[in-house]
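Notes from hallway chat w/ T.B., transcribed later so I don't forget. T.B. wanted the structure written out for a chain they're using in a teaching module, and asked if we could keep both sequence and structure tokens in one place. Agreed to drop them here.
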Amino acid sequence: MSFNTISNSPYPLHSMDFKVAGDKEGITAFQLDIKCEGLSVQTMERALEQARVGRLHILGEMSKALAEPRPELHPKVPRMVTFNIEVDSIGKVIGPGGKQIRAVIEDFELANMDVGEDGTIQVSGFSTEKLKEAQEFVMKLVEGGGGRGGGRGPREPRPEYVGPPAEEGKTYTGKITGIHNFGVFLEILPGAEDGSTPGLEGLCHVSELHVEHVRNTEGFLRGMNTDTLEGETCIFCLCILEIVCSLLLIRHYL
């Protein structure tokens, strides 16, 4: 006896678990588990025919609700675009202390933007139009045009940090304000108490997080088994030799 099911729950008394996937044209994948010593050709033929009939029936019911794929993904489904720039232009995209890359993320409402060491840029978000605009902006930027802003038109200048400058060689406790694949944004000096001016922020590049290559910044920080994160880095071209970050703050932003 053989029967069809679309559930993923295995039947405890069966001798064969045969999963078949495909479309109207044919089979695209299948997987077979057996608990007996072997299967006859007739059993396999019967199973494949039942799978074909069942698959066509399900596809027919699905086509009643949606005859063809939608031209656009659902607004809540993330999109991703990958393109390349010259390695020499990576600095233009990141900007001093990560200001430029952060501006691109905010202006074009991106979920993330990753800049690889080989010049590969990967942007993700929920708007196909915004992703296209972000790519065009970056390509224009590395060609010599572009600059701060873009996705929302002209922007009012942001308040600047007005406190004392960071001291070279001094150890700071940095509050994490953002975690991305390319590194971690840190506020190493606070802004005004009333919030009128921001604190002094900088980018700790992913290459400064560890002596070995870090593939996943969030996963690396989440997997730390210590109360502090220390390392040599350079923020705003000031050689700050040590940054100590409380993992409680890291967990807060993950």
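Follow-up for T.B.: The chain has six helices and ten strands. Might be a good example for the class.
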